[in-house]
Structure formats: structure tokens, C-alpha cells
Specification:
The relative contact order is 0.14. Strands 4-3-5 form a 3-stranded antiparallel sheet, with helices on one face. The chain starts with 16 loop residues before the first helix and ends in a 14-residue tail after the last helix. The protein has 280 residues and is mainly α.
């Protein structure tokens, strides 16, 4: 059997050129819609983002000891990846479907195909790469939070390290050096990642480490918060998600305007969340 070929636009996920052509044709013909999503694209997206989850955590599900808090949390993060992938697939199909009509008329297929190809590129190359990096970073920090919670008697203080190597960003710079107890509410919103490709760390310290004064913390928050996207105002270890599904900071993929889709979201748009794969 000849090796499957992947084009430049879809090299991040295991999705062939033939599958992409079938997707575009299916949307134009109506066999694929927001109520009948392409399962292959959904699974390919989730498989790619799961790699980011396991890379960030440092282990696959098969390597994590059964019955531990670590396994329970990774399972929740894995489910969040699938839910996010379903919402992403829905958003992508919806945008492609909207491209069929222009000025109240159905556009020629060649014109639609060009628009759909650009949408596919954006979702499955540009945005997906950033989402993968977010999965890596959020999983890494969720794993770190598990350690902070389990060791807070010995190391009750946490310090924000913005990795000041000359590339520090304006979002994180005010937070650098903030030192507060593990149980402080500060970490509910400012546990990294705090933006795309955030490199910041949080480090453990014993009780002797001096707590940052409230006035300095408040000043840092006032500088940082206006620059942050609400999507990142979370703690992946406490919220047990990589991508926020609801509430303030909800990822745009979940912000479905049409109320008719609310039930669809609750049912994962009709797409199955597989049980743990053997290789996980």
C-alpha cells in the first residue's frame, strides 16, 4: 500500500489531502454540516492535541499509576481535549458553511473551495500549532500544581518566575517575583500559562520565604490583568481543564451564538469521546 501523502496545509494532523477534499465537497453539497460533523477531522485534531497534553505532563496515561490523583486529573484533561476538538470542528465547519453564500447567492464551487481551503489552513495549521503549545504548557503546569498541593506542608510558598532572560513579556513582567502561599487566591488566575507561548514558571519555597506585600501584589495585578486574555485567567490544575468550556474566559469555539446548539455542546456535538486508547 502506498504511503499516504499529507500536504503542507495539514501536516500537523493525520488528515490526508483526499480527506480534506471530501470535507470541502461534503460541506458544499450539504452532507457535512454543523449537525453532522466530520468525525475523522475531530479525532485527528484530538489525537494531535493529546500529544501536547502528554508531552507537557511528561507521561502518557499508560505510564501513570492506576488509582492516583495524577491519573484522575489527566483523564479530565484528556476529556477536555476531546470536548475542545469537537467545538473546534464545529466552529470550522460552520465558518466553511457560511462561505457558501455571498451576497445572498451560492458561490461557484471553485470560489468556495478557495475560501474553504484558507479556513482549513487557519484552523489546522496556524491556530492548531498555538493550541498544541497551549496544551503542552497547561499540562505541564497542571502537573506542577499537583506537586504543589501534595507538598505544601514542606513547601507552603510559591514564587512566580517570569524567566527574565531578555525575552520577558509585558504581561508577565509585573508578576515576576510575586511570592504567596499555595492556598492564596492569586494562583486561581495567574498560574501559567498566562498567554500563548508563555515560558513562566512557579517555584516552591519553604515557609521562611518572605511573602510579597499586598500593595505590591495589587499593583502587579493592576498592570497585568488588562493585558491578559480571559481565556488564560485560570489554574489548569485546579480548574482541571486546558481550554475553558464555560464562564468568563470561555474559549471562542464554545461561544456558539445560535441557541439551538447549546444542547449540541452538552452532548459534544454528537461526537463520541473514546475510551483510553491502548497506546495512551
Amino acid at each position: 500500500m502506498p504511503e499516504e501523502k499529507y500536504s503542507r496545509t495539514n501536516r500537523l494532523i493525520k488528515y490526508t489531502d483526499e480527506q480534506k477534499e471530501n470535507l470541502i465537497s461534503g460541506i458544499f453539497q450539504g452532507s457535512i454540516s454543523t449537525y453532522n460533523l466530520p468525525e475523522e477531522l475531530y479525532k485527528a485534531t484530538a489525537d494531535y492535541l493529546k500529544k501536547g497534553l502528554y508531552k507537557g505532563w511528561g507521561k502518557t496515561m499508560a505510564e501513570i499509576k492506576f488509582g492516583t490523583p495524577d491519573l484522575a486529573l489527566v483523564k479530565q484533561l484528556r476529556e477536555n481535549i476531546y470536548i475542545f476538538s469537537a467545538a473546534k470542528t464545529h466552529s470550522q465547519v460552520r465558518e466553511m458553511t457560511d462561505a457558501i453564500i455571498k451576497d445572498d447567492k451560492v458561490v461557484p464551487f471553485a470560489e468556495f473551495r478557495k475560501s474553504a481551503d484558507e479556513i482549513f489552513q487557519r484552523y489546522n495549521e496556524d491556530w492548531l500549532r498555538a493550541e498544541y503549545n497551549t496544551a503542552v504548557g497547561m499540562a505541564r503546569n497542571a502537573e506542577a500544581w499537583q506537586t504543589f498541593e501534595s507538598e505544601k506542608e514542606q513547601f507552603p510558598m510559591l514564587k512566580y518566575n517570569a524567566v527574565n532572560d531578555g525575552n520577558i513579556c509585558e504581561i508577565c513582567e509585573p508578576l515576576d517575583g510575586i511570592t504567596l502561599p499555595v492556598d492564596d487566591s492569586f494562583w486561581d488566575e495567574f498560574m501559567p500559562e498566562n498567554h500563548f507561548n508563555c515560558r513562566c514558571l512557579v517555584e516552591q519555597y519553604p515557609a521562611e520565604e518572605e511573602r510579597t506585600k499586598e500593595t505590591k501584589v495589587a499593583s502587579a495585578i493592576n498592570e497585568t490583568k488588562p493585558l491578559m486574555t480571559e481565556t488564560f485567567m485560570m489554574n489548569p490544575g485546579k480548574d482541571k481543564v486546558i481550554f475553558k468550556e464555560q464562564g468568563a474566559g470561555q474559549h471562542p469555539y464554545f461561544s456558539v451564538v445560535d441557541k439551538g446548539f447549546h444542547t449540541q455542546i452538552q452532548r459534544n456535538f454528537g461526537l463520541e469521546i473514546p475510551q483510553t486508547d491502548i497506546d495512551e
